[in-house]
Write a structure and sequence with these properties.
By secondary structure, the chain is α/β, with parallel strands linked by helices. The protein has a domain of 170 residues: Rossmann fold (3-Layer(aba) Sandwich). It has a 6-stranded mixed β-sheet with strand order 6-7-8-3-9-10, sandwiched between helices. Strands 2-1-4-5 form a 4-stranded antiparallel β-sheet, with helices on one face. Helix 5 packs parallel to helix 6.
Length: 257
């Protein structure tokens, strides 16, 4: 088993009296897609935001590339090489692809942007991911389809020498052909050696592209399994009940009469 590139141990997070994450152990390995699944309210978004530095954790340890890491904000996560593609994509419709990919990280001086360098880097990044659905990197985002927007958002996340990419529901509200494009891109990210976390409610997508499945149930990570070792039904049981046969939470002991 390969050493995790991102290894989280004993993560706890509360908001006031509400304990959202309970001693979560979560690992991401280079070259693999790990699907993070769970029902609404299971804690998926909170876990991702703790990894991304948006929320601080109450306790727990984080190791990145085998060394202790301290994530106090999004800049710390980005400096490590952790990028997140949120469901709303965070793209500016009035800007073109190049401007979106470099938004906030533009090249050049404060007086003059290096447009040629940014355009070349955008093209190379899209080409490295075998993206063929975008005709011009100067196309305004407002003119792109849903699948093309998702492609741009994912390409933006790998432009910065990232090592771990977290994708929040990347195929939500996409058609069949666009979903196919995005799933192919997710696999290519792993093939490039990145550690990919796929957050999804779509079990067909999960079983198609994920190497491992991690299941959150009421803030607890109840199982982390190889995709080939479980069935759709077992994963659904883990999501809805926290256990499936020998997997997940231990069965409560019989009450003593």
């Amino acid at each position: 088993m390969s050493e995790p590139i991102l290894d989280i141990q004993g993560l706890n997070k509360s908001f006031g009296p509400v304990h959202v994450l309970h001693d979560v152990d979560f690992a991401v390995r280079a070259g693999e897609v790990t699907a993070l699944v769970g029902d609404n309210g299971a804690g998926k978004s909170t876990l991702v935001k703790c990894i991304a530095g948006i929320h601080g954790s109450d306790s727990g340890t984080v190791r990145f590339n085998g060394a202790d890491a301290h994530i106090h904000g999004p800049r710390d996560a980005a400096a490590l090489g952790i990028e997140v593609v949120y469901q709303d994509l965070a793209l500016a419709d009035n800007l073109d692809i190049v401007q979106n990919m470099f938004l906030g990280r533009e090249r050049g001086s404060k007086w003059l942007l290096d447009e040629a360098s940014m355009e070349q880097a955008a093209r190379e990044t899209l080409a490295s991911l075998s993206v063929r659905t975008v005709k011009s990197v100067r196309t305004p985002v407002s003119a792109l389809s849903g699948g093309q927007r998702q492609t741009v958002a994912i390409a933006k996340s790998v432009l910065w020498d990232s090592k771990v990419v977290l994708l929040d529901e990347p195929t939500a509200a996409l058609g069949v052909a666009q979903t196919r494009q995005v799933l192919d891109l997710v696999r290519r990210l792993a093939e490039k050696g990145l550690g990919v976390v796929l957050i999804s409610h779509n079990m067909a997508d999960v079983f198609e592209v994920a190497d491992r499945i991690a299941v959150l149930y009421l803030g607890r990570l109840v199982a982390e399994v190889h995709t080939k070792d479980v069935t759709h039904g077992q994963v659904v049981e883990l999501i809805t009940a926290g256990r499936s046969g020998d997997l997940g939470l231990a069965r409560p002991e019989a009450a003593v009469l």
